[in-house]
Amino acid sequence: GTGEAATTAAAPAPAPAPAPAPTTKGVDDADRLRGEIRAFEAEGIYFDYDKSEIKAEAKGILEKKAAWLRANPSYKVKIEGNCDERGTIDYNLALGDRRAKAGQKYLNALGISMDRMSTISYGEEKPTCTEKNEKCWSKNRRDDFKLSK
What we know:
Blueprint: H1 25-42, E1 45-46, H2 56-71, E2 76-82, H3 89-109, E3 117-123, H4 134-140, E4 142-148
Parallel strand pairs: 2-3
Antiparallel strand pairs: 1-4, 2-4
């Protein structure tokens, strides 16, 4: 035999499939949710002096909060009623309670179950402003909203 030796060129191995690009979806979703929670908690509603009625501008804020709570049913909200420093401690605790309950009642009317909400009154104990003038006092007459699972 003088025939050529059979050479079998092996076919090149297929290139490995590229690794899937790392995804940040879970991180992005978590960041988005943290941002939504911060925004939810950062926006309070405000009350007139010695009043606990929900003002017109507060209704839009509460409607946004109710929509967020409906879209995120695993969250609960604590509504914190606050007052300015004028009035007695007992009076302000009672007024803060009425304010927190007014926010709760409004959210309930928008479809948020009472078992997802709690209220507390801090009276005048948690001011956001400590100057002795109306502009400052108006910032302390508010409901704050805190989320939990």
